[in-house]
Structure to design on (277 residues):
């Protein structure tokens, strides 16, 4: 295969009780039917509230299984709970092994690695980082093995939370620490990635579209497919819109295309819970 076409979706936040999000997902499905990428990766917050019970996870799986293309999944904080940070040690809903296992039982492994078009693709569970759960240490051990066998191939990393705002040593602030991979796990991860030919870090979580390059590595923040967060609740960093990201990987490079599916609407968080009129 000389070209691998991958579509990244993120923060679908699906739940049967939130039809506006299902409407946007249906527009996405039509677009995937028309474009037929080799793979769709959902970079997390697949369901609206996984830790509350299995319903949202199962609803999200049903909609994804109906897509006309193969999918891989990574967990978000709304799927398995959030990670503690040095600035906010007690997230409202902390990640647990039980919720991680619930996600895996519905969507498959929460970390994965495969190769295509001369590239090595790695997906990580960013929510166990800094959690102290056994699976955090297991994932780092697993990652070390997988990266050791990359053999100089270009590496594309997928995970729910962005690694950082602008640089690996950005300080953790109480108001925004939950937005990024927390320290000290971030430092360890960045160190491990320094030894491979990392070219792309693709994340979700922030519900804003962003695309920047730091020291030769492209960082792509996929927007939510479902909704955007008002400025009174979240500062503007990139572009607040719904949409998706398309990639074309070839052995000697890759292309990134930012777009929205025809008919996808900018639903705002407030709209989700507004009574129908
Ligand atoms: Fe989200
Ligand atoms: Fe998230």
């Amino acid at each position: 295969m000389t070209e691998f076409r991958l579509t990244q979706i993120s923060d679908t936040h699906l739940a049967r009780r939130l039809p506006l999000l299902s409407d946007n997902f249906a527009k996405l499905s039509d677009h995937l039917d028309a474009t037929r990428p080799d793979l769709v990766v959902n970079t997390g917050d697949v369901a609206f509230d996984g830790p509350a019970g299995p319903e949202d996870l199962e609803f999200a799986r049903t909609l994804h299984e109906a897509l006309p293309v193969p999918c891989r999944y990574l967990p978000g904080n709304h799927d398995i709970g959030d990670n503690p940070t040095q600035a906010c040690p007690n997230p409202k809903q902390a990640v647990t092994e039980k919720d991680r296992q619930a996600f895996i039982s519905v969507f498959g492994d929460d970390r994965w690695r495969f190769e295509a078009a001369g590239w090595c693709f790695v997906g990580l569970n960013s929510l166990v980082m800094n959690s102290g759960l056994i699976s955090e240490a297991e994932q780092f051990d697993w990652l070390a093995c997988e990266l050791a066998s990359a053999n100089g191939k270009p590496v594309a990393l997928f995970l729910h939370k962005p690694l950082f705002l602008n640089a690996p040593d950005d300080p953790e602030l109480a108001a925004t620490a939950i937005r990024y991979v927390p320290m000290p796990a971030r430092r360890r991860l960045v160190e491990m990635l320094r030894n491979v030919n990392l070219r792309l870090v693709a994340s979700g979580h922030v519900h804003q579209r962003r695309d920047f390059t730091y020291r030769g590595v492209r960082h792509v923040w996929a927007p939510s497919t479902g909704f955007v967060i008002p400025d009174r609740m979240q500062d503007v960093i990139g572009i607040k819109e719904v949409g998706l990201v398309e990639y074309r990987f070839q052995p000697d490079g890759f292309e990134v295309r930012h777009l929205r599916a025809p008919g996808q609407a900018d639903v705002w968080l407030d709209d989700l819970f507004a009574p129908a009129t």
About this structure: The mean pLDDT is 96. DSSP finds seven helices and 13 strands in the chain.
